[in-house]
Amino acid sequence: MRLVLLGPPASGKGTQAALLAAHLRLPAVSTGVIIRSEIALNTELGQRAEALLADGKLLDDASTVAIVRNWLKARRHDLEFIMDGFPRTIPQGESFRKMLREEFGTSLDAAVYLNVPHEVLRDRILGRLQCLVCGAVYQQQSHGVKEDDLCSECEKGKLAHRSDDTLETFEQRMLEYHTKTAPLVGFYEQFGKLITITGAHAPETVKQMIVDGLKRLSP
User: Fold this and answer.
1) What is the pLDDT of residues 66-82, one digit of tens each?
2) Burial class (CB in 10 A: 0-12, 13-18, 19+), 54
3) Mean pLDDT, rounded, for 156-181
4) How confident is the model at residue 52 (pLDDT cuts 50, 70, 90)?
5) Does residue 123 form part of some domain?
6) Does residue 146 lie in a domain region?
7) What do you get for the CA distance between the two ends of the chain, in Å?
8) What gap in Å lies between CA 188 and CA 20, rounded to an integer?
9) Domain contains 18
10) Residue 168 lies in a domain
């Protein structure tokens, strides 16, 4: 099975990727992981990506697609995945669809769109705490934690707000999402690949809704 997860910042894509990977026994991968692996290989693409990231810039569509292509080539005999964070734009989506069809002889099974109200996303971002040692993420309300609490995962680090988890940064990310990424929802809907899920529920509930949606989508 080949899935992509769509949704705005804090919609739960990373959480659902992990839950679905365990439930469906599929590898979950994020664009960040794919890019870092390319950098580690010290390829020309990896060097270009590293230079752009060092300057605080995002990769252009062509470079991002090329790096994903390399990742897929390395998995040519096991082309199943849950993709978190790719594609991010319509050009990436078009290139990805063409690549899967023409170069790998396959296609996506579904694009899962996590639809979460703006105010819920905002509260998730502003209520997010992260361990300063292991990076584990908590929600103040749902996990019953507060700043400076000890992380229950590693039992070493204290919890703190990330410096970029501000209202201003959130609104900027949402603007970019609606401009560049949100159109992918309609893009996948036109091919009958879209599953829309209300992502404001508890993670396990959302996961089961996705699994049920995949069953309905299957021929």
Assistant:
1) 999 999 999 888 899 99
2) exposed
3) 92
4) confident
5) no
6) no
7) 13
8) 20
9) yes
10) no
